[in-house]
Acid phosphatase
Amino acid sequence: MAPVTSSLAVAAAALLLLPLTSAAPNDTFTRNGLTWSRELRMNQIQVVGTHNSYHRESPLEERDTQRTILPDTQNYWYSHPALDIQAQYQSIRNFELDIFVDPEGGHYASHLIRELANLSTTPDPELQQPGIKVLHVADADYHTTCKTFVGCLQVVKKWSQAHPDHVPIPFMIEFKTAEEAHAAMGGAAPIPWNNTELLQGLDDEIRSVFAADELVTPDDIRR
């Protein structure tokens, strides 16, 4: 198996093993067509990660309304710094993102919570563009440090390029849809992740940010 030093790994659930550092020339062995070094492997390390790594808490002006459309809203009132700040100053090496499909753009550009609170509902220009969006609960808990999937990946890639010796960073991806209850109140309708075209779009977005040699995928290590 080829050694990796600065690659990032993107996975939907778990990351398979991969050597992290260059192997000494005479300290390798081959089995089942794979060449292994005796260097540190991913199943021999532990990293610190964040859940809902993108999340920012709702502003005070939305909270009274948020209490009426979400349960236990105090559990939503927390914020993370931007992904690169987490990597740089908190040593975070595992990010979790919630993604919503938006092939035509604009599906999540306005937010029900603001309409119900009689606040400005001007559509967000960034959310009007086609592409996968990063949100926690569409229409009810939508504030993020990066609004699009590509944008979030680009933040981490920029940090990665400035720190090329980091270990592989897994991204844990949760596929989400809007809530039926909020749609019935006038919010965004759910768009399910139910066809290969949408999943291909996810793969395309990942590869629009990272080159093949910057990724660890199942095909890289499957035999």
